[in-house]
Amino acid sequence: NFRLTVFFIKMARPKVFFDVTISGKAAGRIVMELFSDIVPKTAENFRALCTGEKGIGQSGKPLHYKNSKFHRVIPNFMLQGGDFTRGNGTGGESIYGEKFADENFKEKHTSPGQLVRPLLHLINFQQGSMANAGPNTNGSQFFITTVKTEWLDGKHVVFGKVVEGMDVVKAVEAIGSQSGKTSKEAVIADCGQLA
């Protein structure tokens, strides 16, 4: 007789950051935890776009969020960014090529600060999602929610959350409008991986 014991080691979820400027002045750092155990492909795409480690994409632009802006900000909803190819919400590219499929919708839009893939989403301690133009059209755009957004469940992939810097998220939210146009420019001046 022998007993087989299996140990599961939970891998630490990656933490990434954005150092944000508003009108060229430092606004602070947003730290996000990525749900690599739930949506590994989506989390890896975002992580690699934070570090810039994948080099130049098919668009001829660096696969990197550094120096890209939050192009759409709607108070009491979300901040959208990640269009490093065009800067206006019509571009972007994933590390896998132009677009990739939705992984799953296990995580719900239950709190602010979530990272979401669009149709458009991001992260926050509160949650984040990938932004997209419909099912299976994920690229580099994302949004960070600033309130609960349950109506997005099943439409956008939640892939992380803001764990530090909600004050910075709120500062960016304050320059937004109902149309999404910002009164000042908010830029990801630097970004990378912490852990």
Automatic annotation (TrEMBL):
Name under which the protein is recorded: Peptidyl-prolyl cis-trans isomerase
Family: Belongs to the cyclophilin-type PPIase family.
Domain of life the protein comes from: Eukaryota
GO MF annotations in UniProt: cyclosporin A binding; peptidyl-prolyl cis-trans isomerase activity
One record GO biological process: protein folding
Catalyzed chemical reaction(s): [protein]-peptidylproline (omega=180) = [protein]-peptidylproline (omega=0)
Keywords: Isomerase, Rotamase
Gene Ontology CC annotations of this record: cytoplasm
